[in-house]
């Protein structure tokens, strides 16, 4: 996500919060008489482990790390993981983790609970600039641990040629569940489904939020709430008349593939679809609009990663300085240019929309987004739920959610 290199002087701003690496020579640590880390003179060398989406992201992070190194006098080695979670687990277990790393919201709480992560984010100068839902995603036991590096939301993608062929106009953009169902029916042909989506919580959960609920609410399991049952019953009604088909039914690996190969006129995906469409289906013309509102109003899901810092790192000050540099508004906009993510800081939103107007629907839904639950043990529950959602067309939605409820209560209680 990087082209030009005009970056904020973040190292200087970090001085205000007691971080003294920057251009004075960085940091190394040794134990002082009280057993606390003491600053050494000389540059710091940190390792940064990332779970890269491809060469564009790796190149962008490497370029940003080089810019930070030039400014701070320190060095950063960027490593693109082959299996991020496995490599992090091995590093934590051996007591030799990377200093800085990508940490997914789905694994964050489990790692925070084991003491593997440094709770540093509230000390950053821009801590109040991150979207509240993203702060929530990386808060454990009331501590804001790690800075969100970027985020994604779900929106509705529409094939413009299919839309026009069905005689639809801007006035037909769906703003409610009923309207979504209606236009999906109008867009359905013998060769193309009106809407295609994977049957997994990470997509269908948006309907739960629109109905006014989620799997977990205020730390309590709410999987089988009446709102969530209503959400799945709505999805089931679309499956029943084939206006909605699953990715498996049309032979696609994910919604973006179904959309790009014209097996669907609409899909529900995040802003990551932009890169896939540009790379694999450049001739497909489409537009992105907000998801329609449900009974409780607008809603979507957000997905995010943070910049984790290891509790065992002996370069924590330099690592924090690095993260501050990476999360500065201008640097986040460079990442958006390089590989398509959205800035995690609210102060960059207007500049993002001005530069990427076609993607505005994604970031405009930030305040209506709810996070995927991330309490310890919940990831396994969601995986089990996804297996059951595969049979949603013929299954009892309440029975599926009752099972998820029991599993969630056990996970949260444990």
Describe the structure concisely for a colleague.
By secondary structure, this protein is α/β, with parallel strands linked by helices. The chain has helices at residues 10-14, 55-72, 84-94, 105-113, 132-137, 160-165, 177-187, 201-211, 226-240, 255-260, 273-280, 316-326, 329-339, 349-355, 360-364, 378-389, 397-413, and strands spanning 28-31, 37-40, 45-50, 75-80, 100-104, 139-140, 143-144, 147-159, 193-197, 216-217, 220-221, 244-246, 264-270, 286-289, 300-309, 369-371.
Q: In angstroms, what is the radius of gyration?
A: 22 Å
The residue-averaged pLDDT reads: 91
Largest sheet: 10 strands, mixed
CATH superfamily of the largest domain: Periplasmic binding protein-like II
**Total beta strands:** 16
Write structural notes for this entry.
Helix content is 41%, strand content 19%. It is α/β, with parallel strands linked by helices and 414 residues long. The chain folds into 2 domains: 211 residues, D-Maltodextrin-Binding Protein, domain 2, CATH 3.40.190; 192 residues, 3-Layer(aba) Sandwich (D-Maltodextrin-Binding Protein, domain 2). Strands 3, 4, 5, 8, 9, 12, 13, 14, 15 and 16 form a 10-stranded mixed β-sheet that branches. A hairpin with a 5-residue loop joins β1 and β2. α2 runs antiparallel to α13. The longest helix is centred in the N-terminal third of the chain and has 18 residues. It is globular.
Task: Give the tags.
414 residues, ten-stranded mixed β-sheet, globular, D-Maltodextrin-Binding Protein, domain 2, 19% strand, alpha/beta
